[in-house]
What does this fold into?
Amino acid sequence: MGSAASVWYSSEPSGTSATRQEVALATRPTEELAVIAADLGYTDQSHLIRVFRTATGITPDAYRRTISSLTA
It folds into this structure.
């Protein structure tokens, strides 16, 4: 069985990175996750959530709350 890193790379759409996900979430705070997921090439919202949580340890929603509290 592969490492967490290999799961991250194998489940990530081509050309997508954690940084790109983070930028999309931070710059589009009111955008539906399903729309962001589609724009980034994920099959659906749950796919984005799984990959993001694996890479960062938190959900996209928790990341958005953290970002909003830092900018408030």
In short: Confidence is low (pLDDT under 50) at residues 1-10.
